[in-house]
Amino acid sequence: MNSLTLRLSLLMGLFFVIVYAVVTTLMQYMGVGSASAYIWIALGIVFFQYLIGPKIIEWTMHVRYVTREEAPGLYEIVEELAQKAKIKMPRLAVSDTPVPNAFAFGRGVSDGRICVTRGIVSLLSEDELKAVLGHELSHIRNHDVLFITILSVVPMVLYRIFIQIMYFGGGRRRDNGSTMLIALGALVLYFITNLLVLYASRIREYFADKGSVELGNPPQNLATALYKLVYGAARIPKEDMQAVEGAKAFFINDVSNARNEIHALSELDLDQSGTIDKYELSRLKHSPINLSAGSKLMEIFSTHPDMLKRIKQLSEYTA
Fold this sequence. Notes:
With 319 residues, this protein is mainly α. The chain is 66% helix and 5% strand. Residues 170-174 have low confidence and may be disordered.
């Protein structure tokens, strides 16, 4: 078991304990069920998310699956990467959104799916796009897509419990001390579990970046792709960005934070060519980076690592 799988497995176990505790508390409060029933209900919640997770992504991003004949260039790149990774060829899809990005989703390696947006295809060169697709394929190979899909349901359930009690519980229930305590507990656990999901989401990005390099993509190609994606996202109208907000945790970068990342990344592009070449990336390898307190705090509440830190990590893979 690799380091990423171990960390995510531990998080999965912790989250199941939380779900079980919440279900037990609610059932005991209502005076129904038994210990065995609580376990089955908790498992049922997780399994339900496992079943519907991919469909939610498809609906949110208006995913359309394509064949080799419809997208020969993309298909050949993903097929080649899948062969190198020694996994099954994932289903390939496109999303007709101008937001430049790509993402992997599905229920596991045998059900892996990779989607690219209209915006990313027109923005990146073939080598840069290949590096991004290598990153997404690594998500599938690392099994982290399944983990994130299941983990993400826990904060959602806790938030719904809090809303249900506070706004739809009726006047008498709101005056009940134990009911209010349950609502407060659900809110606190929502906050904690959401931070844990964000942490899991961030660490998986570092492993997928490394995976792309291991599949033969030079680190400067992925660094340049990330650089371009930040600039591309910063130019997208607000209404287009809001339309994909629900799926951004699956994206290769946090599109909502793009405008805040531009200044720091522009300093990496020494010759202002719009790319981060091997020399510029190697130079970063031997240069310290200083993040402001605001940037460090923002990263804690982000689905993705700080982009400067992430490209700094990519520089460690340069010769």
